[in-house]
Amino acid sequence: MTKRRKNLGRWGETKAAEYLQERGYTIIERNAYTQYGELDLIARHIIGNTEVITFVEVKTRTTTTFGYPEESINRQKREHILASAMAYLQDHPDLGDEWQVDVIAIRRIDSEDAPEIRHFENVFS
To answer: What is the C-alpha separation between 18 and 55, in angstroms, rounded?
Structure first.
């Protein structure tokens, strides 16, 4: 991965974390590594009266030449995310049983404009 792509990814993860925090989420961990790979963001929030752990996959793009960011999550990526989430939960049993996977898609077409952020909740239910 090029330095430019890494920087864009880091920037997107920061924007996603800020977006979630503005909506009442608490970020537990960023870039958590498991034997199956990396989880971009892990957050906690309340739905109804239930605390839910959310594994967030962040996809950031500066162009739609190859499609929208969320379209890059294929079957293989989905399996990777789910395996990583399950491994993380096994290593952190204190987090409870309620969890979901969200995707945050960020498009930064022009660095002068605010990025477009789309939040897809509970994408693998």
So the answer is: 15
Q: What is the spatial distance between Cα 20 and Cα 80, in angstroms, rounded to a whole number?
A: 23
Question: What's this model's pTM, rounded to 2 decimal places?
Answer: 0.92
Q: Tell me the CATH class for 3-120.
A: alpha beta
Q: Rounded to whole angstroms, how far apart are CA atoms 65 and 83? A: 30
Nearest to 101 by CA among 76, 121, 74, 79: 121
For residue range 81-91, list pLDDT tens digits in order: 999 999 999 99
DSSP 55-107: EEEEEEES-STT--GGGG--HHHHHHHHHHHHHHHHH-GGG-S-EEEEEEEEE
3-state secondary structure of 45: strand
Neighbours of 45 (CB within 10 A): 16
Q: Which amino acid appears at position 78 of this protein?
A: R
Task: List the structure tokens of 21.
Answer: 């925090």
d(CA 29, CA 40): 8
